[in-house]
């Protein structure tokens, strides 16, 4: 067959080009008419897939509770090392997991976190803290909303006073600086002067103990530790209907 010229569209340049039949044959353009020859598509380079590793329950800060949950904005604000009051008590009080049920049909004996009894900060009645509770009962300090609002609305600055006592109750002896840092997470500012004046009547009644921390701040001033020693519902240290009777 005589060598003749084909018109081929070059998709790389976007232009029509003329090419000899023999060259088109070498490039693999066979069985085509001169006017509709199409350039053979180039094979696509192999793609390299990148697999991403997702760590379950990893927090934005990289700090996780012992249970594996992240410690973040959804956690109990009074805590630094645990995601909730439940986990704080579970691990510090050495509670143990219990069987999911007594059924003999449960293979491998799956375990679950047990309910933990908690006293209401207002009325003193007990209720159960749960590990996975969408209602926030895993960090609740009140048996009901009624008790919460009764305390918060009982007097001026009642919520700030309750936050201070709650932190002391959960975190143990703390200096005013440590208290203030944790209070900032509640969007409640607390400095040494405010905390000292708030503590004064409780110290006078023997409900809070204050003693030397054995260390000084950067200015050389000796730091004081505050420790909650009152063993009743902390809300009753604030509510005027109870403070006069205690």
Report on this structure.
The chain has 246 residues and is α+β, with helices and mostly antiparallel strands. The chain has three domains: 5-38, no CATH class; 85-143, no CATH class; 153-243, Orthogonal Bundle (Arc Repressor Mutant, subunit A), CATH 1.10.10.10. The protein is 26% helix and 18% strand. It contains seven helices and ten strands. The protein has helices spanning 21-26, 85-92, 145-152, 158-171, 176-185, 192-204, 240-243; strands spanning 5-10, 15-20, 37-38, 98-99, 111-112, 116-119, 126-129, 174-175, 208-216, 222-228. The strands form four sheets. It has a three-stranded mixed beta sheet with strand order 2-1-3. The protein has a three-stranded antiparallel beta sheet with strand order 8-10-9. The protein is elongated and about 115 Å long. The termini are far apart.
